[in-house]
From TrEMBL, chain A:
Record domain Aldehyde oxidase/xanthine dehydrogenase a/b hammerhead: where: 38-149
Residue ranges of the TM segments: none
SMART domains with a match to the protein in the record: Ald_Xan_dh_C
Upper taxonomic lineage: Bacteria, Bacillati, Actinomycetota, Actinomycetes, Micromonosporales
Keywords for this protein: Molybdenum, Oxidoreductase
Annotated protein name in UniProt: Molybdopterin-dependent oxidoreductase
Cited InterPro entries: Ald_Oxase/Xan_DH_a/b, Ald_Oxase/Xan_DH_a/b_sf, Ald_Oxase/xanthine_DH-like, AldOxase/xan_DH_MoCoBD1, AldOxase/xan_DH_Mopterin-bd_sf
Pfam families linked to this entry: Ald_Xan_dh_C, MoCoBD_1
Organism: Paractinoplanes aksuensis
TrEMBL record, chain B:
One Pfam family of this chain: Fer2_2
Alphabetized CDD domains for the sequence: fer2
Name this protein carries in UniProt: (2Fe-2S)-binding protein
2Fe-2S ferredoxin-type domain location: 2-78
ATP-binding is among the record's keywords: no
InterPro entries: 2Fe-2S-bd, 2Fe-2S-bd_dom_sf, 2Fe-2S_ferredoxin-like_sf, 2Fe-2S_ferredoxin-type, 2Fe2S_fd_BS, Beta-grasp_dom_sf, Diverse_Oxidoreductases
SUPFAM superfamilies, A to Z: 2Fe-2S ferredoxin-like, CO dehydrogenase ISP C-domain like
Entry keyword annotation includes rRNA processing: no
PROSITE patterns: 2FE2S_FER_1, 2FE2S_FER_2
Source organism, top-level taxon: Bacteria
Keywords associated with the record: 2Fe-2S, Iron, Iron-sulfur, Metal-binding, Oxidoreductase
Automatic annotation (TrEMBL), chain C:
UniProt signal peptide: none
Keyword Acetylation: no
Protein name: FAD binding domain-containing protein
Gene3D superfamilies linked to this entry: 3.30.465.10, CO dehydrogenase flavoprotein, C-terminal domain (3.30.390.50), Uridine Diphospho-n-acetylenolpyruvylglucosamine Reductase, domain 2 (3.30.43.10)
Keywords, comma-separated and alphabetical: FAD, Flavoprotein, Oxidoreductase
Domain called FAD-binding PCMH-type: residue spans: 1-196
Amino acid sequence: MPRVNPIDSDYFKDERPDDKFSVIGKTVQRSDALGHVTGRTEFFEDRTFPDLAHVKIHRSAHHHARINSVDVSEALRVPGVLRVITHRDVPSNWYMVLRLIGIEPNDEPVLAEDRVLYKGEPIVAVVADSEAAALEGAARVKVDYTVLPAVLDVEAALAPDAPVIKQAGTNYFVYEGHHARRLRFGDVEQGFAQADRIFEWRYSSAPIEHAPTETTGCVVVPQSSGRLLIHSNTQAAFFTLDNTALILDRPFTDLQVKGGTVGGGFGGKVDVMVEPLACIAATLTNRPVKFVYTREEEMQVSSPRAAERIYIKDGVMNDGRIVARKVMLYVDSGAYSRHSPYGTTKACAHLPGPYTIPNVYADCHCVYTNRTPSSAMRGFGVTIADFALESQMDRIARALEMDPLQFRLKNAYRDGDLKAHRKVAEGTALIEVIQRAAALVGHELPEEYQAMSSRGAGA
Amino acid sequence: MRIVNLKVNGVGKTFIARPETTLLLALREQLGLTGAKRGCAQGACGSCTVLLEGEPVVSCLVPAVTVDGADIATVEGLADGPALSHVQQAFLDGFATQCGFCTPGMIMSAEALLDRNPDPTRDEVNEAISGNVCRCTGYEPIVSAILDAAVRRREGAKL
Amino acid sequence: MLTEVHVPEDVPAAVGLIASGATILGGGTALMPALNDYGSPPTALVSLRRTGLAGITVAGSTVTLGATTTLAQIEHDARLALLNPVVRSIASVPVRTLATVGGNLFVRQPHGDLAVALVALDARATLAGHDEPAELPLRQPALVTAVTFERPEPGIFKYVKAARRRFNSASLVTVAATVVESGGIVTGARVALGGVGDHVLRAHAVEEALIGRPLNEATVHAAAQDGLTELSPADDAYASAWYRKRVFPVHLRRALLGC
């Protein structure tokens, strides 16, 4: 049986007067486990349909290019190929998944029109009787390109002489008229001036692919009512339904999404990548259609966690109090927005970390490059920022010859503190978590640090 | 197109295979046995692992026509009615599943290991499942469940 | 696109199909991944599964591996303990059940570790339609029916494969060697390398630097420096060419000296 750690009920007793939990602390069998061990759990691809057709994609061979012409004649000659789909077959080709929460502009085509902005961008979809015929047809599409200079680095993309790759006119997402999501609190320059020490370092991360064992895919089945039933492994059923309907230019009620069983997602299945084209193919052929990524597509073109570059400059007093923190943060969104404008806002909302610092300044840039579009992945925005912030904390502690836990406790936010976003912190508990973690690993803390509490000191 | 006969989980099956029909796709699409999964079609993830003549294979790399007449075992054949195999029961009890996509392949690799080696070391279990990718990264409970299943099998054999 | 998969019942039938343009399919572990997911010219395959070429015979010190013998069959044959660490360093259990001896002679680097070992063992390939056995590595496609080698005395054969993970990972550098010593001096050496070029490499410079010298750290260090000139590794997902060259002397030392 799995090990279940006993619940630590020492802290915050007053918030749990009866101390009764019905599930927490107990071992409860997963409701889906029996299906998993018997192979009966039904993933989207575990349904078979007579007359199933298949979609495969011809993708861009270049990071950045103008498309001069597309020749599909050889693809159509492959036995078993039913249709080719180009951007002209997509009723409303330009989209942005986050438009559902009011974010603009629509910056991504379902299928490329006159240009491609990343290697692997979809240009033509081929529908065929068999998967093999669809693959063969897609391989035989011919595209004539004029290759354009590519921008593959976030800071290079923001340089004054960088080629502008986005039709909106800037290589960055515009936040309410600004070049970045900004955070301004106190006077950071004055903070640096009063500080005993200044520490400035650079942090960066590479894109990370979720690599779910089950690749992204769906099966779309035309119903006798005229509706389309979408069996999908999306992690975002309603985002998928609404965006697909907007792309198809059909009422939301025309679509039904059946999902919820996902063979590994980790945020990699929240974009709307396969359903629109599968729906178009199903409509054009009036047949059930499957569109599932190959493993190579999953690794190469499904959106990864964004690469980030983060510069942190801190002003610190000799006693370990941080008095100013300035962060310049760059999220590599790749060629299109997907969920990155939101992820960048999350990164900004996380700054300056769980510490109370009187002077904070941050510019968080959502930058477009000619790399694979990035998007959601487990805590995106926060995860890499935390890597940078906590690395920074360790390095400063080392430079000051301070215990890294004591350094954090000294700066930890407490209930009642005003955060840099002008929200009052509550339920912080950072101090208690550090105290208990230290005790668990036998890391001794002096009396004054053991006596600290997240309650009230800042109020 | 060729007619192919297989004995699957002890039952004779006949189907028509195209040249590109792999053993995996035949099981899934023609015989309705969808326990084995397609995770990569490259032989790299192990989600499609079934037993071919008692030995584990990545069924995505086997053209169906080449194994005409073979004996195949899949995850669907392990349980005896509601009674799970020792490996299945150990996975269930040991919380060795998360998304469930790798589970059938993982279980077939485990069954094959224990058929050959009833008392494996932890290291031997690691080697046996080195071709089965669990991206939810629940390897520790999986390895523990396989070791637990080995005990259950040995004790079951003694009864 | 696959047009046909032939499954002939004997070697002459296979030879006829190959002559008509069909591509040889052994275990499929190298060929099928490409055919599953990518477009291709019209392709007919000829599977060797039923041609009767599987089997291991050991007669005295002579070992013969039928071409379609799987890596798993070698792994589980007690007479071939010599090759056990070699095949267990390759891929994973459900792949080794399919992958064949013959196929391993032709897989692309950085795969093909059994072929590296067989080159070091001075194995000979029997080719269909040829009387003379062929020396390894083979450079041209051919229908191999068997591979034969003389089993060396204990301690003569050495093998090290450096990989990113202990199990199921392709080669960074593979070293296989047979080294014969007499009176503290190396009198015979045959060294083969994987992971350091686009084919299995016979490391002649290393062999020359070993012969006539005592097998010690200084000799092996000098042999590695000589051997570096023959390497032409590639950058791939497993390692950079720079890294492979950088660690080659370390793995040569570990293979030859055991430390």
